[in-house]
Amino acid sequence: MLDLFNEILATLRHNKLRTALTGFAVSWGIFLLIVLLSVSQGLINGMEAMFSERDFESMTISGGWAHKPFDGLSEDRPIKLRDRDLTILASKNGNVVASVAANINSDSTIVSTQKDYLTDGYTGVYPSGLHAEGGKLKRGRFINDSDIREKRRVIVLHEKNADILFGEHVNPIGCQVKVGELSFLVVGTYAHEWNKRSFIPYSTARSMSGGSDKVNRITVGVKNLTTIADGERAEKSFRQTLGREHRFDPSDNSAVWIWNRFNNHLTTSSAMNALQFAVWVIGLLTMLSGIVGVSNIMFVSVRERTHEIGVKRAIGARPFAILKQIILESIAITTLFGYIGIILGLLVAQFLNTMAEEGEWAFMKNPSVNIAIALQVTVVLIVAGALAGLFPAIKSLKIKPVEALRDE
Fold first, then answer.
1. Which of 160, 170, 221, 391 has its CA 20 to 30 A from that of 353?
2. What pLDDT does residue 270 have?
């Protein structure tokens, strides 16, 4: 085995330039494959992290405008959602509705302390409100069922708003703020990229609304849905239920706006899977050019060593020994330069990971190549190297010893 290894090494040294140029093609293909895989994995991880912060098994419904005349009513009518819609949606769609919650917004109410004030208003929410909005709790707690049931005057502030109202180094939990003319106890702070509203219990917000039963948004938690078709049927069912209640054409999509998070999640997941598949295809096709180069080199090598092969056959070398030598030479070239490409690709992947951790590329998360992918690439390298040397090896077996010995 050692003699075979030394012979392969001597052959590679004898054709340094040709080996290096062919090896570069292999390295470049593997390098691109690793980098593309790391980027696609980073994008997939980023999307999964984003969805994990939100309740993707839900749909958010907002009132809109009925643009079609229906049941004797004219077009261009505003559709306002109301408290009773929560009960109606749950009772008429019990097979797909897991939970129902609503939001009430107040855009003009001032939230203040003795130090400063805010003009962002507040939002009355249920306990699921923070997860539905994609926010992260930073201190204390969020609105709970007891707050809703007892109509407590408690509030959850955005962490930056808490700094404005109390100061950057002050823990606001347990402090009092004014919401309009009413005092509220701060029970938590949260973080969100763009939403800085203050959250209070939905029941408390309802009691402050002056007797109105209108709601801004209804969030329906869904269940028993597995496909996009299931999500579309559930969305259609919600439109029909609200259409009967508010007397608008269920096919009038502008009457109520529905954000189907469930279908969005499935669509995005499918797109990410397609992206990863496309990356593998592009990377393998790029690597194929290098493999073809290796195969060409082995054909040339066989042609140049016709006399040598004839001598080996004449002194009793078995066909399998010749076949093994040529295939192993091909695997050696592919694997050696392939691993150079893997190492360079991993270095770039590590650089991308560092940039993502530092927040430079927040859309990616952990864009690295794990052991499983490295093993897959290793298998691809070995198989590709064997295939690249297979046909030249088969050709070498067709050389008759007498004809090979006459070859100069």
1. 160
2. 82
Q: Which two tokens stand for residue 78?
A: 């505003």
Q: Are 331 and 377 in contact (CB under 8 A)?
A: no
Percentages (nearest 5) of helix, strand, coil residues in the chain? 55, 15, 25
Residues 6+ apart with CB under 8 A from 211: none
Distance from C-alpha of 265 to C-alpha of 365, rounded to nearest angstrom: 18
Interval 124-144 mean pLDDT: 88
Please list, residue by residue across 106-130, b when 16 or more beta carbons sit within 10 angstroms of its beta carbon and e when fewer do. beebebebeeeebebebbbbbbbbb
> Residue with structure tokens 């209804």?
218
168-209: pLDDT as tens digits: 888 999 999 999 889 999 999 999 878 888 999 999 999 988
CA distances from 331 to 2, 306, 395 (A): 16, 20, 17
Amino acid 9 reads L
The DSSP annotation for 81-150 comes to -BTHHHHHHHHHTTTTEEEEEEEEEESS--EE-SS-EE-S-EEEE-TTHHHHHT-EEEEE----HHHHHH
Question: Tell me, what's the pLDDT at 95?
Answer: 92
Q: CB pairs under 8 A, 24+ apart, for 374-378?
A: 374/342, 377/30, 377/33, 377/34, 377/338, 377/342
CB 121 within 8 A of CB 106: yes
Question: Is there a contact between 11 and 329 (Cβ–Cβ < 8 Å)?
Answer: yes
Q: What is the pLDDT of residues 32-42, one digit of tens each?
A: 778 887 877 77
For residue 72, count other CB atoms closer than 10 A to its CB. 6
Close Cβ partners of 347 (under 8 Å, ≥ 6 residues apart): none
How, if at all, do strands 256-260 and 65-66 pair? unpaired
pTM above 0.85, yes or no: no
pLDDT-above-90 percentage for the chain: 32
pLDDT 10s digits, 289-325: 666 766 666 666 666 666 666 666 666 667 677 777 7
Taking CA 243 as the corner, what is the angle to CA 241 and CA 244, rounded to the nearest 5 degrees?
Answer: 70
- Cα 171 to Cα 168: distance, rounded to the nearest angstrom: 8
Q: Is residue 266 within 8 Å of 57, Cβ to Cβ?
A: no
